[in-house]
Each structure stands twice: as structure tokens, then as C-alpha cells.
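Human: I'm a chemist; would you kindly supply sequence and C-alpha cells for a protein?

Assistant:
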Amino acid sequence: MELEFTEEWIELGIVTPERLAQIEDEWRTSDDRNPEHYRWRAFLDFNQSHLFLDDAMLRRLYRLGASDADHVMGGSMMAHVLLRRDCPEDLLLEAAQSEEKFLCKIAKERLAS
């Protein structure tokens, strides 16, 4: 699919079949041809609708960002997970060792506070 949602997006519940149909309708009628914009909105909607996520889900969301087709958007997803209040400490410790400087900085700041 042009929007580049993987099966994991559905498995994690970020997009339901109904939500995916809505997104596809938006895609067909919009001038916005940047698939990452649609994935980003779906990711934010999911996060905003879940005030608390368990550690396993947060780790999976972080990995989903790491494997995203768009490196910049994937990094934004990873940063968003790190900034969540419920982000597990072991994920922050892992990110603090990241080669991605911005992730390393976020993690170290969170760990220091």
C-alpha cells in the first residue's frame, strides 16, 4: 500500500481496519502525497487516546519507529515514546546509548530528571 502501514500497525491497534479505510479515503481526496504524514497522524491519535501504555507496548512502538520507512518520521515516533511519562527506564537507558544524538539527548535528560 502506498501509505506504507505494515501489519504491525494493525497488530498493535494503531490503525483498525475502519481507521485505515478513513485514512485511505483522505489519501484519495487529498493533495498531500506524503505517506508519512498519514502514519504520523495515526500514531499521534493512538498515543493521545492512551494515557497509559504498558512497557511491552511502548517498546514495540519504539521499535516500530526504528523500522519505519521514513527515517525522520520513525525517529519522531521514537522520540515521542521516550518523552511519554510512562516510558520504561530500560528503554531510556537503551536510547541513551543510541547513535542517534537527538534520541540520546532526550533519554539522558529524562534519566537525569
Summary: The longest helix spans residues 35-48. The chain has a mean pLDDT of 96.
